[in-house]
Amino acid sequence: VISVETAEKQAKSRKTSLEAELELLAVHGALHLLGHDHARPAEAKRMRARTRAIRRSLAKQRETRPGTRR
User: Fold this and answer.
1) pLDDT band at 69, cuts 50/70/90?
2) Longest C-alpha distance within the chain, in Å?
3) Could you give the C-alpha distances from 33 to 16, 23, 26, 30, 40, in angstroms and in order?
4) How far is 58 from 46, CA to CA, in rounded Å?
5) pTM for the whole thing?
């Protein structure tokens, strides 16, 4: 579950769009469901790298799909 109200606040504080914040939270949550964690520095580093890779892949898919927003 993602709180849109909280996402709006976080997006504002991070100076990013609500859409980008929701994407980040969805990817982050999915990684947790798959067993990833960030309790220790090495885990956090791996999780950040995986999050970036997934978001890059999503961005590329948006760019190549006709009729999708950028």
Assistant:
1) low
2) 41
3) 25, 15, 11, 5, 17
4) 18
5) 0.84
CA nearest to 21, candidates 4, 43, 33, 45: 4
Separation CA 31–CA 45 (nearest Å)? 13
- Look-up of token digits 């964690």: 37
For the stretch 12-42, pLDDT in tens is: 999 999 999 999 999 999 999 999 999 999 9
Beta-sheet strands, E only, within the chain = none
Token duo for residue 42: 């090495």
Cα–Cα distance for residue pair 5/2, rounded to 1 Å: 9
Question: What is the spatial distance between Cα 31 and Cα 52, in angstroms, rounded to a whole number?
Answer: 12
Rounded distance, CA 55 to CA 19, Å? Answer: 12
